Amino acid sequence: MKRKYISVARSKAVELICSNLHYLQTQEIVTLSNALNRVAAKDIKSFNTLPNTMNSRWDCVFFYYDRWLEDKGDTSLWELGKDYIYANTGVAIKGDHDTGVKVENTKIDKDNRLVLLEKNIQKGQNTQPVGEWLKEGEIVVKANTKILPAHLNILATAGVTEVPVYRKPKVGFIATGNELVSAGQNLPVGKNIESNSISIAAKCILWGAEPISLPIVSDNKAQIAAAIHKATAICDIVIIGAGTARGTEDYTLDLMDSLGTVFFHEVDHGPGKRTSFTVVNNTPVIGLVGPPMGEEMTFDFYVLPAILECLHQKIPLKNIKCLLEEDLPEHPKVDFYMPLHIYEAGDICHAVKAESLPGSGAMILCNINAYYFLPRGCGGRKKGEIIEAELSPSIPIAKACE
Prior knowledge:
six-stranded mixed beta sheet, five-stranded mixed barrel, 8 helices, 28 strands, alpha/beta
């Protein structure tokens, strides 16, 4: 009997995946040096108050404001170390001198006497009071914040050396195919390098997940089923690559129907139409297509939202307007996300099909940094039109070569 495929739109697919995660959200403690790109599991408070005494805001000459008023601005009799002092930026002001003038607004005359070039002086100016920068007990990093370099700076200043973070979701990838050999091995005739696991692992690390290395599995139902059971026992999210089309040795979808609950067999667009989602042993299993270009896009579309959902992060969707430098034809059979290469030239962004740039077919992957959705029947888009493309979350916009 012919299977009835469940096909869903991209937004529905993301909703189904993110609402059926079973990630056990526990926290762990990491050192400050290992906290970059981790997500804070709770509010983190400062142990320090800074400055802990009145500091100089700039490189200044400090003096007593009342003495300055009393002398009516005449500093000719002032003595260094008694009536005025020097204090550098961020340094504690010795004694009880309470007002500062920037060094560049002072001079020492030929008789070695201090002269203030600034006239409109306010009491307490150029001082930094206790606690202006940071207060003990103040929240310096809120829960669910992805920790960036600036946060590390603040945490160090706050005296925090151990950081509570969420456990990284474990993401396993199962590559299937009789034709595949691991990267680094000799390539026999008729075989192909399994490369998707390399880029998937890198993306997992980039977005805060822990990639789990799993062996290549042949196109054998029993072996694929065993690999899925093993992976779901140790991973929070499992990705299975290839075997989702309708070839003679594409078994993944048949297995999913028997191993767990299939939420969808495919999405309603290309590339990557055969993206699927199943829950097996209470673990989400996302089926991605085998070709690298489809995998590159569908990971961003469907796996990345799952990782970010686990870590309470928002999906980084960003659109950009750009000038088309060539026609974009519609796909004759499906809605299609056209892979684009966007670059800056002059004051605007320009877009070409990623496949239009020089280089072999494999180089297309490195050229893709955006997508443009072309609904079937739209008639395509013409050179010279302004379009709004969706940026890849992993690859920056390029600069035009001079």
